[in-house]
Amino acid sequence: MSVYLNGRFLPLGEAKVSVLDRGFLFGDGVYEVVPVYSNKPFRLDDHLRRLQRSLDGIRLANPHTIAEWRERILQLIALQDFADQSVYVQVTRGTPGEGQPPRDHVFPQATPPTVFLFAQPLVTATPAQKAAGVCAVSAVDNRWLRGDIKAISLLANVLLRQRAIDADCAETVMLRDGFLTEGSASNIFVVKDGVLRTPPASNLMLTGITHDVVLELAAAHGIPHEVRAIPEAEVRAADELWMTSSTREILAIVKLDGVPVGAGAPGPLARRMDALYQTFKQEVMRA
Ligand code: PDD
What we know:
The chain is an alpha+beta fold. It folds into two domains: 2-121, 2-Layer Sandwich (D-amino Acid Aminotransferase, Chain A, domain 1), CATH 3.30.470; 127-286, D-amino Acid Aminotransferase, subunit A, domain 2 (D-amino Acid Aminotransferase, Chain A, domain 2), CATH 3.20.10. The protein is 30% helix and 29% strand. The protein has helices at residues 22-26, 44-57, 66-78, 127-132, 155-166, 209-220, 232-236, 268-286; strands at residues 2-5, 8-11, 29-37, 40-41, 85-92, 114-121, 134-140, 171-176, 179-183, 187-192, 195-198, 225-227, 240-245, 249-256, 259-260. The strands form two sheets. Strands 7, 8, 9, 10, 11, 12, 13, 14 and 15 form a nine-stranded mixed beta sheet that branches. A six-stranded antiparallel beta sheet has the order 2-1-6-5-3-4. The mean pLDDT is 97. The structure holds N-(5'-phosphopyridoxyl)-D-alanine. Residues 33, 157, 182, 185-187, 206, 208-211, 244-247 line the site of N-(5'-phosphopyridoxyl)-D-alanine (PDD).
């Protein structure tokens, strides 16, 4: 497998980073995950804009222009021998050079960032998962207050996600101060009486590219939708609950904390939105 590291494409086994890299020592970096269908990246410009916002959020200069990112990502995609990919993009604050403290919280001076890209086969929800839906657990959102930054320091998300796995579920739905934020690695939508709802963008959550596409499709197809704060009671009384992300796409949550959501099966709006999303994807890829 060919990966990209700091200006070079090379086999995975040859890609090496210093143990003093700030990504390793501090989790000091940001990332993106871009879905690729039939060798075409989906919504790449949106991902690159969000990467810029994440870099701004951690005060790290973007090492590349949009055109340079595009070129590297397209080259990486072309080097893989599978067509549907999940491209991972990571930028860290790099490795302090000679004469600088090897480990200091303070930003190092004149240190180039570490840029790492690799691709894995894209694993979306299986037809069986789509047909049956998945279960989720809920938890208090105990992450830092900058969920809008797609930071590589994901310890809280890792621990939260593992709770779901330990319960044989797919995702952890997070609540902060009695309101829905998002999933440990996804955004969450609630359907009640035919209205689709999701919380507004804020520092407390990552606004997903998939989430934005879902809202665009809802608007384009006349599906009633609202972006507003969602109290826990509305999550628990939902007719439908969905998780969305670049890799899971739109996936119905049919059980929350062991309690069936609505009818306990993927609802009509989830099926409709998934169909709209699949059609939209295909149209974009053909264009
Ligand atoms: N995560 N919220 C969180 C906390 C996420 O980690 C993700 C995606 C999303 C959905 O964003 P998008 O629709 O742009 O993928 C929301 C990726 C897939 C990951 O960490 O692997």
